[in-house]
Specification:
Chain lengths: 633, 633
């Protein structure tokens, strides 16, 4: 916003979030700036009608149209992407218009879980009022301090070297009234064993109670962190960035390969450490000096990302029999890894189940609460490496599906990541034989991202342009033509595209790849469900996790046979459940212990070695499936 | 020895040590080379007669003389310093001729203690035969390894980062048969608590069982180390060197002062680390590659030396109320301190009792066994900072005496350390009014070392040249003259001395300083003994520890009132008991725990604040004491 323009406040209900706005800005843009996620499947083109909001007070510049009748308009409904601010206004965002409303109904659930019952983080602070030494009481400083902690029941603490060195000065500067920060690591194998404890630091007994922990989700594509005040269990908003490793390969396999070459492991480690350090620097701007008060870091990541973070060579993850070097991680000093945090800080990393079902999934299951629910739940993280967990409070099985890169735009002729220029939304009007494109960033189309691919194939299948086998039906629509690789659908001619003079097309090979990918996921969870004598129809909940899930259109994902054909109200989008799970364990050592327990209860299946999987996979290579009864509504 | 000379073997009994020798070498030199310590108070001048050995086989070049009658000679007695090798021979070293025979009788006792009953070092090795992973058993490497250790009862181990990084390669190189090295730290405060354990490394399951620990005695003056094969409890011979800190001050106070200036602490730490690294380099020559197999370091040192080693600012040790920063040390990574040892190695440091009764004394008491004896024992370490422990198996009290530097040659006009040129032995012939000097290194006299000072003053007092008040008696002997500082005794005129044209003299001020020092020690242990309602006559054993003790002549030390007047058979010289105690704790975690227990049982007295001490000190300022009955034989 330029400073010479009069600004005013737009208020969004029900969250009562106020955002400064300028005249002429779209309500969608203003909402985005306020981090209010409004569904805009078409990317703000006014073609999907899913961004309806309700004007409660004030005025906006708007008019009825294709998606809003006169009656709707009279009742106050507006399209957020088309309505423009003209003065102060209050708008209500109905649940249907929130991002991915169909799966979002219980999205807040994981957040609610952040209200952990016990205030028992692995790093805790104790205010100590020591009696100053005198000739009759000349205990050594450290022995005096540890004695006071022993009186609180904390015996036999290990002591951080740096803390010990600073101790004489701190004690005297603070007149022997100090805050002791202690790390407790609960014993896992032998629950009777008292936790291992380490005195991390002595510091000024501050009144403002800043006492921080950091949860980190290390994803293959992006890294998210969340600062938590462990004194109050207040979790600050997450911030994220692309994982710096992305320039060394898009998926875990290419990272593992790179790590095995020369100095590759070190380079990859430096990249991800650099990414996290960058996020810490951003936190610095908001919470100056939080670092000195940072004691605990809890990380969740997939198996490969965890190894690369710590600097453990991951090659055996991808070599049979797929044994990762480490599944359960010991406590690590993040400063040793190069993180810009004090030497006293301790890092715990979520345990993984197997080479391809990692700590991110364990954290996700923890965040989802499925481990404590009687409902038969499918937890699914769609991606190149797709992870699936099914089960209830009594049992859980899990598996990884090697879906291939189609969901991330790989192996697709004009595939790309979900970045500006990617076609994400696609509507086809069968009577007019016209399509509408929703492009991320609203510029010219350059390519197709994963969720766009699903939406396009679903819509074309729905309208008979693509058949059950994934082949284009000739002479149905004018966009299908013979291309270099057989029939293809022209999404945008070179003249309309942002793709440097290239047509943006969808080929039959692209569709084949998508079918292969969705089939791998489908047959994966089908194998797990049927392996325990149940059917997909028995599923009571489907929890969709991960970054890709957030842009997934449920109806379309079901249409192509990626997700099971169940009533939409059974689907829940859980957001970054890896980060949420890490945050829970950061806040509470009980949750950390629970995570180990949850992980122990997740029985891993290697699908490629599970009888029946290959047959199910073959049967899934249709749209939506060979067995149409699986998708009969 | 030059290579073109025919060498032969000299065998020393009773230890049956064989040493290669050349014709013409003195038996004393040969014995020294074989580390057989033969008493040679005169420094090999043939004037003390205390180095008698018995020829059992073969021949040596020798003749009777002042100290050997024809009869003695016929019976095979020889003076080791005068007898020269001429061919293979076997010699018996009688107990009287062993170094400091009068106090040496049970010197081997501490060594015997090295036969620890339990083989339970804090670092232990386990041979693991893991089943290699296969598709049906795809546990992660670390989880597989920890699982095998858990099957041995070792649950919830922490894991060394470096070990984890190397693990995948080591396991596969060794076909999953490896040696796991594990550190166990026994809980002290809560003995019910299982020990803290850390997996230090995985390595080749070697057959030669090299598995090393290092004990270290960090003295203010010198540093000694001893390599121990923890697999066999074999302790290799100790090696030592001057503490590199010596150029920054001779005593702990000057070191503390230096540490407080600018970068002083870091410099002092670097010096002592450098000294130990130098000793490690010497061990390298004998035991190549021992470092990779070094897992545990146990250190004993006085309170100040321990702080300087770790790099903790020690200033409060010398400021009232004399509170050291640390008494009980946590486990420390010696590699963090700059020691040239692998990152997996762990260091434990003996706890101290107080600012001036340090871990070296705790280790000494451990080595002495006094804590488990019903006999009332005085343990005494004579030095600038003299330490005293008295007690039995039921109780122990201890104190430090600030004796001043006289015992180490300080505050004495021609004082020097016990180095070549120092007069150590002094015999006075009252009839001939002549003296004989024994000089360390047998060169010209340069000055007087601490033990020499005691010997000279005792001998002169014995023969009436010095009186009870420590003053020279005039006209008794020709060596007494009026000097710059009053009367003085000329030990060597400038023309005979090696002291750059200076006379080597003993002044009345020197004698005063010695009286002050010996009085501080005497009144210290007298205060402790009488404080529990006993008298010095009740003492059943006196154990003399420390480097200075080894050169102490017992009769002379009693003569001047430094040691209590008790039958000589009650005195025992225990050698470097600090190193021995550290070695015991290195070999056995039970001994380590016992050391904590022993330390807890040592009740510290601050003499300066103990009623009666000053009176006793004043009364001790005579030779041997104001109360002659204390020294009546």
């Amino acid at each position: 916003m330029s400073s010479d323009v009069q600004t005013f406040e737009i208020t969004f209900l029900p969250d009562n979030i106020k955002v400064q706005a300028e005249p002429g800005e779209s309500i969608l843009d203003i909402a985005n700036r306020g981090q209010i996620h409004i569904n805009a499947s078409c990317g703000g083109e006014g073609v999907c009608g899913r961004c309806q909001v309700e004007l409660r007070d004030g005025e906006v510049e708007a008019s009825p149209g294709l998606y809003l009748s006169e009656k709707d308009f009279a009742e106050g409904l507006r399209l957020a992407c088309r309505a423009k601010a003209k003065g102060p206004a209050t708008l209500y965002v109905p649940i249907e218009s929130r991002a991915d409303a169909s799966s979002f109904k219980k999205a807040a659930k994981a957040e609610e879980n952040l209200e952990v019952k016990e205030h028992d983080p692995m790093a805790r602070q104790y205010l100590l009022e020591l009696s100053p030494p005198d000739p009759a009481d000349n205990l050594a400083d450290l022995d005096r301090t540890l004695g006071a902690l022993a009186n609180l029941g904390l015996t036999d603490l290990d002591v951080e070297l740096a803390a010990m060195k600073k101790m004489p000065q701190v004690l005297r500067d603070e007149n022997f009234k100090v805050r002791a920060s202690v790390f407790f690591e609960p014993a896992i194998a032998d629950p009777e064993r008292p936790p291992y404890g380490r005195l991390l630091s002595l510091s000024k007994a501050t009144l403002d109670e800043t006492y921080y922990g950091l949860s980190v989700d290390v994803g293959t594509t992006s890294v998210w962190v969340r600062l938590v005040n462990l004194a109050t269990n207040e979790a600050l908003p997450p911030i994220g960035d692309l994982n710096g490793q992305i320039s060394f390969g898009e998926d875990v396999i290419s990272r593992i390969v790179y790590a095995g070459k020369g100095n590759g492991l070190h380079k990859l480690q430096s990249q991800v450490i650099g990414t996290i350090n960058g996020l810490l620097a951003r936190l610095d701007e908001v919470y100056p000096n939080f670092r000195d008060n940072l004691y605990l870091v809890v990380v969740a990541g997939n198996t490969t990302m965890s190894h690369l973070l710590v600097g453990v060579e991951p090659r055996h993850i991808r070599l049979a029999p797929y044994v990762p070097p480490v599944a359960s991680w010991p406590a690590i000093r993040p400063s040793f890894l190069g993180l810009d945090v004090p030497s006293h800080a301790v890092m715990k990393i979520f345990p993984s189940v197997s080479s391809y079902v990692g700590g991110d999934i364990v954290a996700g299951v923890l965040a989802s609460g499925m481990y404590k629910s009687p409902e038969l739940t499918l937890f699914i993280d769609v991606g190149t490496n797709g992870e699936i967990v099914i089960g209830t409070e009594d049992w859980m099985t899990c598996a990884a599906c090697s879906a291939g890169p189609a969901f991330e735009g790989g192996g697709v002729k004009r595939g790309m990541r979900a970045a500006p220029g990617a076609i994400e939304i696609f509507n086809y009007e069968p009577l007019a034989k016209k399509h509408h494109l929703g492009v991320i960033g609203r510029g010219r189309p350059i390519g197709i991202c994963g969720s766009g691919l699903i939406n396009i194939v679903a819509e074309l299948y729905r309208h008979g342009v693509i058949n059950k086998q994934g082949k284009f039906v000739e002479n149905v629509c004018p966009y299908v033509r013979e291309g270099e690789d057989g029939l293809e659908y022209v999404l945008a001619a070179a003249s309309e595209s942002g793709g440097e003079g290239r047509d943006v097309v969808l080929t039959e090979i692209d569709v084949e790849n998508l079918i292969r990918a969705k089939g791998a996921m489908f047959s994966g969870y089908q194998t797990l469900v049927e392996g325990v004598g149940l059917t997909l129809g028995d599923l009571e909940r489907v929890i969709i996790a991960g970054g890709f899930g957030s842009s997934l259109n449920l109806e379309n994902a079901i249409e192509i046979g990626l997700l099971p054909c169940l009533p939409l109200e059974k689907f829940f989008y859980i957001g970054n459940s890896s980060l949420t799970g890490a945050t829970l364990a950061l806040m509470s050592s009980s949750m950390w212990r629970l995570a180990q327990d949850v992980r122990g209860r997740m029985t891993n299946f290697e699908l490629s070695e599970t009888p029946g999987y290959m047959d199910k996979y073959m049967a899934s290579q249709f749209i939506p499936h060979t067995d149409a009864s699986l998708f009969a509504r």
